Amino acid sequence: MNDHELAASIAAEAGALLLRLQREGTAGSALGAAGDRQANALILKRLRAERPDDAILSEESPDDLARCDARRAWIVDPLDGTREFADCRDDWAVHVGLSVDGAAAVGAVALPALDTVLSTGTPLPLPPGNHPPRLLVSRTRPPAEAARVAQAIGAELVPMGSAGAKAMAVVRGTGDIYLHSGGQFQWDNCAPVAVALAVGLHASRLDGSPLVYNGAERAIPDLLICRREWAEPVLEALSRS
């Protein structure tokens, strides 16, 4: 398998494992903890077998900073949206991304509850935009900047769960803009950004600067993924606010 196929295969397999855990009847925090642990073990096992020379950064494993010297680093979130998964909602995801020379080059995002895997290997045609535009925000911590941008451009705020679910809503055409501030980590958005770029979306920091991966600092404070026609208006509204 090439890198794109491998990312999609691993994300799908981890998603299937997580759905089985839900069906087994465990609930609440115990379900979330089991999901994080078992999906991480599966992903690491696959990557180490298939790409033994590549570095790995996972939310659920200790960070080995030797990865910073590697050109290729897999950046994974075995269960993005643990709360939503534990509540048996559908807005959670599995992220398997590959950074090459600091760029999000390969990615797959599984939405297991929706029986969907979106990947850089098979990018979807971008559907038409929504009118008014739909701006995806955290359902528990919507950023103040999002409300100001929505007012400036006439957008509708749409709360949703995990970062991957929100980013993929833009890819799938059920949203137009995903704006986040207040902190994320590389694993929260590497795979989603790769998939978003593959279908022709804009992805950047909130000041318009590029997103850079596999640095020693794991945090990425803010993120914008949107349809290209909305990039300039959103960035301009952000600069004014």
Key structural traits:
241 residues; alpha/beta; 7 helices; globular
Task: Report Rg.
Answer: 17 Å
Q: Helix/strand/pairing class, anyone? A: alpha/beta
Specify the oligomeric state. Answer: single chain
Strand content range? 25-35%
Strand order of the largest sheet: 1-2-3-4-5
Choose one word for the global shape: globular
The count of DSSP E runs of length 2 or more, i.e. the number of strands, is 10
Mean pLDDT: 96
Question: Whole-Å distance between the termini?
Answer: 46 Å
| Unreliably modeled segments | none
Layout of helices and strands, plus pairs?
Elements lengths: L2 H21 L4 H23 L4 E4 L13 E9 L1 H5 L6 E8 L2 E9 L4 E4 L14 E5 L5 H10 L2 E5 L2 H10 L4 E9 H13 L3 E3 L14 E8 L1 H13 L1
Parallel strand pairs: 1-2, 6-7, 6-8
Antiparallel strand pairs: 2-3, 3-4, 4-5, 8-10, 9-10
Helix pairs in contact: 1-2, 4-7, 5-6
How would you describe this structure to a colleague?
The chain is of the alpha/beta class and 241 residues long. It has helices at residues 3-23, 28-50, 82-86, 144-153, 163-172, 186-198, 228-240, and strands spanning 55-58, 72-80, 93-100, 103-111, 116-119, 134-138, 156-160, 177-185, 202-204, 219-226. The strands form 2 sheets. A 5-stranded mixed sheet has the order 1-2-3-4-5. Strands 7-6-8-10-9 form a 5-stranded mixed sheet, sandwiched between helices. A hairpin with a 2-residue loop joins β3 (93-100) and β4. α5 (163-172) packs parallel to α6 (186-198). The N and C termini lie far apart (46 Å). The model has no long low-confidence stretch (mean pLDDT 96).
